[in-house]
From TrEMBL:
<protein>
    <recommendedName>
        <fullName>Dipeptide epimerase</fullName>
        <ecNumber>5.1.1.-</ecNumber>
    </recommendedName>
</protein>
<feature type="binding site">
    <location>
        <position position="160"/>
    </location>
    <ligand>
        <name>substrate</name>
    </ligand>
</feature>
<dbReference type="GO" id="GO:0046872">
    <property type="term" value="F:metal ion binding"/>
</dbReference>
<dbReference type="GO" id="GO:0006518">
    <property type="term" value="P:peptide metabolic process"/>
</dbReference>
<dbReference type="InterPro" id="IPR029017">
    <property type="entry name" value="Enolase-like_N"/>
</dbReference>
<dbReference type="InterPro" id="IPR013341">
    <property type="entry name" value="Mandelate_racemase_N_dom"/>
</dbReference>
<feature type="active site" description="Proton acceptor; specific for (R)-substrate epimerization">
    <location>
        <position position="162"/>
    </location>
</feature>
<dbReference type="Pfam" id="PF13378">
    <property type="entry name" value="MR_MLE_C"/>
</dbReference>
<comment type="similarity">
    <text>Belongs to the mandelate racemase/muconate lactonizing enzyme family.</text>
</comment>
<keyword id="KW-0479">Metal-binding</keyword>
<feature type="binding site">
    <location>
        <position position="297"/>
    </location>
    <ligand>
        <name>substrate</name>
    </ligand>
</feature>
<feature type="binding site">
    <location>
        <position position="295"/>
    </location>
    <ligand>
        <name>substrate</name>
    </ligand>
</feature>
<dbReference type="Pfam" id="PF02746">
    <property type="entry name" value="MR_MLE_N"/>
</dbReference>
<feature type="active site" description="Proton acceptor; specific for (S)-substrate epimerization">
    <location>
        <position position="267"/>
    </location>
</feature>
<feature type="domain" description="Mandelate racemase/muconate lactonizing enzyme C-terminal">
    <location>
        <begin position="141"/>
        <end position="239"/>
    </location>
</feature>
<feature type="binding site">
    <location>
        <position position="243"/>
    </location>
    <ligand>
        <name>Mg(2+)</name>
    </ligand>
</feature>
<dbReference type="GO" id="GO:0016855">
    <property type="term" value="F:racemase and epimerase activity, acting on amino acids and derivatives"/>
</dbReference>
Length: 365
């Protein structure tokens, strides 16, 4: 199956409310759309969200990587040699993981379509439902309580609270939300690297002492400081989830070898797509470490690809695939059907099941 053309487009999607983390505040979601065409007439979709603060990629850098580095290698590529094609792409540059992921998911979309299978069946076919939490942006305790109650009303039972914007308020934020939502609701926390190692241990132990019943704490300390992450993991009872610390299979190996976290957050945008995400999952499985599949603030295309990956595998126990629920509009026709905390994948649509992207401006280059 040969690739004969690539179209690259841009979309901008308004959010229901500003998305605020310790790393960034965002007022709309941007996405770069990739559309691959094969000689036999199949169309494969992928997308990449510029998350400069995490992957180091902007819209311009994603487009430049697609046009200058990826396009010359993929036009004429034969996907029946996927292993060769992917190894060539992965070894031709470092970083640019979201750009690579967009192409990777379009490849998998095409491969599954060529066998007339939904992607989750092509990848393993464990089940076709994925359940997600909902992220509550970092705000004042009052706003976070109000947003949490709205989320419960909408049908979410699992909340991820963003912390780390003025850490002195973090304890009040978590306690206020726990009091408001009661004990049945699952609460996890994401500090997006905002705490120091000792500060993280102090804060997490305080949550433990007061029985705030936290599922896990995500990326408490700086991404590159593996010894700090290890220090936190070894000194608290609560599970620690590595996010920004794990991009590659090698990162996963290091984190597991050094017992620096309890759980791994796999995101296609960090791993460079399904090819390497599968390697991370295999390493984690062999080590008995559970994985969560997460997302950036991104469109329905890449979240659908992540949902197919998660649904294909038995060992993915939880998902943070809530981006479609944070967007005020959905310009993507097809893909996962999102109803509150449930993403349902069609058992009959082949590939990702993406039909069309509305209001997309394809670039000329
Ligand atoms: C949207 C998702 N629930 C999430 O919170 N992802 C963030 C990073 C997203 C971004 O900044 O676009 C995370 O897990 O750190
Ligand atoms: Mg995170």
């Amino acid at each position: 199956m040969k690739i004969v053309d690539i179209l690259i487009g841009k979309i901008k999607i308004p959010l229901k409310r500003p998305f605020k983390t310790a790393l960034r505040t965002v007022y709309f979601a941007e996405d770069i759309i990739v559309k691959l065409l094969t000689r036999s007439g199949l169309v494969g979709y992928g997308s990449a969200a510029p998350t400069l603060a995490i992957t180091g990629e902007s819209s311009d850098s994603i487009i430049s990587c697609l046009v200058n580095n990826l396009k010359p290698k993929i036009i004429g590529a034969d996907l029946s040699n996927l292993e060769k094609v992917m190894n060539d792409l992965h070894s031709s540059f470092v970083n640019n993981t979201s750009a690579l992921a967009a192409v990777d998911m379009a490849f998998y979309d095409l491969l599954a379509q060529s066998l007339n299978l939904p992607l989750y069946k092509y990848l393993g076919g464990y089940h076709n439902l994925v359940f997600t939490d909902l992220t509550i942006s970092a705000n004042s305790p009052e706003v976070m309580v109000a947003d949490s109650l709205i989320a419960l009303d909408e049908g979410f039972q699992d909340l991820k609270l963003k912390l780390g914007l003025n850490p002195s308020l973090d304890f009040v934020r978590v306690q206020a939300v726990r009091t408001a939502v009661g004990n049945k609701v699952k609460i996890s926390l994401d500090a997006n690297q905002a705490w120091g190692a000792k500060e993280a241990v102090r804060i997490i132990r305080r949550f433990e002492k007061l029985n705030l019943n936290i599922e896990f704490v995500e990326q408490p300390v700086k991404a590159k400081k593996l010894s700090d992450l290890r220090y936190v993991t070894q000194n608290v009872e609560t599970d620690i989830l590595a996010d920004e610390s794990v991009f590659s299979p090698y990162d996963a190996l290091q984190l597991i070898h050094h017992k620096a976290c309890d759980l791994l957050n796999i995101k296609l945008a960090k791993a460079g797509g399904i090819f390497n995400a599968t390697k991370i999952l295999n390493i984690a499985e062999a080590a008995g470490v559970e994985c969560i599949v997460g997302c950036m603030l991104e469109s329905q295309i890449s979240v659908t690809a992540a949902a197919h990956f998660a649904a294909a595998k038995k060992s993915i126990v939880r998902c943070d695939l809530d981006s479609p629920s944070l967007l005020a509009e959905n310009p993507i026709v097809g893909g996962a059907v999102v109803e509150a905390n449930t993403l349902t994948l069609s058992e009959t649509d082949a590939g990702l099941g993406i039909k069309e992207v509305l209001n997309v401006e394809y670039l000329k280059f």
